[in-house]
């Protein structure tokens, strides 16, 4: 009985045709897709392991886990697309629109071109992830060098490489999928090159500015710079712009052209940090007190282990509400936190010196002098005078 049932399935069910394909062909195609969906992760892990071992001499600084984390997802998609191709090779899908319904497009050509687009996109994704991994390897190597120039070049060439990969993939898509004559297209760009260059003028200027930054090296990644009113730490010099982390911890993207056009102060290259402020003493502070205060502060600044001998303490001006003493000194540190710690230490000492000599700090005040003058009364004998003056006596 079972033999007859199997024969029935073989002869009737599996050989039943729908849209030009038998049920058996549909089952084989579905089996290939199911196999690809289930085993794509395992195959991707095996493939990434093989690729890593082949290039292990070049990228020994990075481990297999990092390599897999970047490549396994795009490889899974690419492998599934290959299984999809083999699954559709089993089927004889319609080549004429009349086999489906009226008005449908030429299905076979449309599906094949769509498949080509997905394959090119997946391959491009794999190559972009390889570029990321190679850039990561070079960044590990640059961390071991003293120069900061290579730290800037790695992200720059990483972005440059990605742009070239995308352009190549786009041209490949135009040529293989849409049948465009890529050679003629590239040659035709010479005719419209002026228009394209004019439209991309700003981008080209920023690109040239990035090369200027790498050659002149006015700053490197990690430097504290001031560009106009913007102060922050350079985090990355990119293909078009420079990324700066401000002192408020916000993130600013500055076009490279502005970085070279505007006056730029590289604060990291300073040999010392300067501290400058005024001490406002009250006007009742005597000259002897001021001399003693300035002398002691000058002596303390000169003897401080973290300041140089260029400090100046001077009785500089007579302000509207105070006698002003200028304090100027330089701290031998580039670290901001250490600088403010030393500045706080100096400020405490200044307060102690001012208090030591009995002086006081001034604050904006105004002194109003009121002078009272003595005037004669207009009517010394007012009781004997008429209230309105000049009146006749009444009898």
UniProtKB/TrEMBL annotation:
Mechanosensitive ion channel transmembrane helices 2/3 domain mapped to chain residues: 165-201
Keywords, comma-separated and alphabetical: Cell membrane, Membrane, Transmembrane, Transmembrane helix
InterPro entries assigned to the protein according to its UniProt record, in alphabetical order: LSM_dom_sf (IPR010920), MS_channel_1st (IPR049142), MS_channel_C (IPR049278), MscS_beta-dom_sf (IPR023408), MscS_channel_2nd (IPR006685), MscS_channel_C_sf (IPR011066), MscS_channel_TM-2 (IPR011014)
Asked if the keyword Kinase belongs to this entry, the reply reads: no
- Compartment(s): Cell membrane
Mechanosensitive ion channel MscS C-terminal domain residues = 276-360
One cellular component GO annotation, for this chain's record?
Answer: plasma membrane
Q: Where are the transmembrane segments?
A: 23-43, 77-95, 115-140, 160-178
Give every Mechanosensitive ion channel MscS domain span: 203-268
SUPFAM superfamilies attached to this UniProt entry = Mechanosensitive channel protein MscS (YggB), C-terminal domain, Mechanosensitive channel protein MscS (YggB), transmembrane region, Sm-like ribonucleoproteins
The membrane topology noted for this protein in its Swiss-Prot or TrEMBL record is: Multi-pass membrane protein
Principal localization reads membrane
MF terms per GO, please? mechanosensitive monoatomic ion channel activity
Q: Does the keyword Nucleus apply?
A: no
Q: Which family does it belong to?
A: Belongs to the MscS (TC 1.A.23) family.
In its UniProt entry, what is this protein called?
MscS family membrane protein
The record lists the organism as: Pontibacter akesuensis
